[in-house]
Amino acid sequence: MAEQNSDQEQGAAAQEKPAATFALQRIYIKDASFESPASPVVFTKAWKPKIQVDLNTRSQPVAEKNFEVTLTVTITAKLEDQEETAFLVEIQQGGLFLIDGVEGEQLRQLLGIACPNMLFPYIREAVDALVVKGGFPALALQPVNFEGLYRQAQQEAAKQAAATTH
Question: At the top level of its lineage, which domain of life is listed (predicted)?
Answer without folding.
Answer: Bacteria
